[in-house]
């Protein structure tokens, strides 16, 4: 898992793992379902076609044969994002221009080129072009805004995790969805909220729009059917989720986010320093993202914080499972919690690890 896993759509045969993604065959209903239900994917892209091209005229001619009518209206603005690797055509801006030109040729009307800025409205249709050893793969983004934008997190405190990464950490922690879960450094509440959505089986995409909804072939009935099906799978889980932070402002933000996500009733938020947490007796999971700084040698304050955190866990959470996201082995070492696994990830481009462990009793 990475912080940025794209999921590609429309390969043939078995799902195929790629670096940072999965390629699979899918129906239109699957396209709706994957956008609606996947908790850790960044975006779902639909493969329009693949061909070789070694000159710009060849690229334009072959790209103009793709089924553009399935995703675009004539004259609709597009954003074309290009990557080129070991190919004769390596000038990405020129490739983007030719692909937009090919779309114009297809419709007999130019397709205006726009920048893809997630915060601007309306979003242009994003087209992804990848050249690898002269093979050109052209795909259409089906998601629109990245899938971590669930719609509930309108405010953030310091250093928030992406919702997709938070959901991935909850799953990677091995949490069973029933035992208590605690985040004593909760910030904007992302881990606790994603845990609550997961425990209740709430579809992460149920409150947002997707790019495919603007496609000519969008089947509203089919989408509503998928949505109703996802809603019917929700459960009223009696689980205890505790989230605390010493920053009162962060707790206020976390509460508002949880309310928007529809899970405020499931999470107990408290403004507390980590040394003051009072978890239940039943052993559960601590999944958290304490401050870690980005320096190679962490300062003394952070080392003390991790040492204190380890002491608190031994005293208050014997036999609990732990999952701590951190960029530094030295800091994790200060906790003196036996490690079970270290999972390498990136968070906002920074290499980090998710350290899974188990608290021993005193
Ligand atoms: C990296 S942020 C957590 C971000 C969070 N995962 C999110 O998605 O928003 C670390 C948090 O730890 C809190 N913190 C720092 N020292 C603390 C302490 N001693 N006790 C409790 N919280 C603390 C900070 O206020 C900050 O909100």
TrEMBL record:
<dbReference type="Pfam" id="PF22020">
    <property type="entry name" value="RlmL_1st"/>
</dbReference>
<dbReference type="Pfam" id="PF02926">
    <property type="entry name" value="THUMP"/>
</dbReference>
<keyword id="KW-0489">Methyltransferase</keyword>
<dbReference type="InterPro" id="IPR004114">
    <property type="entry name" value="THUMP_dom"/>
</dbReference>
<dbReference type="GO" id="GO:0003723">
    <property type="term" value="F:RNA binding"/>
</dbReference>
<keyword id="KW-0808">Transferase</keyword>
<dbReference type="GO" id="GO:0070043">
    <property type="term" value="F:rRNA (guanine-N7-)-methyltransferase activity"/>
</dbReference>
<dbReference type="InterPro" id="IPR053943">
    <property type="entry name" value="RlmKL-like_Mtase_CS"/>
</dbReference>
<feature type="domain" description="THUMP">
    <location>
        <begin position="30"/>
        <end position="142"/>
    </location>
</feature>
<dbReference type="InterPro" id="IPR054170">
    <property type="entry name" value="RlmL_1st"/>
</dbReference>
<dbReference type="InterPro" id="IPR002052">
    <property type="entry name" value="DNA_methylase_N6_adenine_CS"/>
</dbReference>
<dbReference type="InterPro" id="IPR000241">
    <property type="entry name" value="RlmKL-like_Mtase"/>
</dbReference>
<dbReference type="InterPro" id="IPR029063">
    <property type="entry name" value="SAM-dependent_MTases_sf"/>
</dbReference>
<keyword id="KW-0694">RNA-binding</keyword>
<dbReference type="GO" id="GO:0008990">
    <property type="term" value="F:rRNA (guanine-N2-)-methyltransferase activity"/>
</dbReference>
<dbReference type="Pfam" id="PF01170">
    <property type="entry name" value="UPF0020"/>
</dbReference>
<protein>
    <recommendedName>
        <fullName>THUMP domain-containing protein</fullName>
    </recommendedName>
</protein>
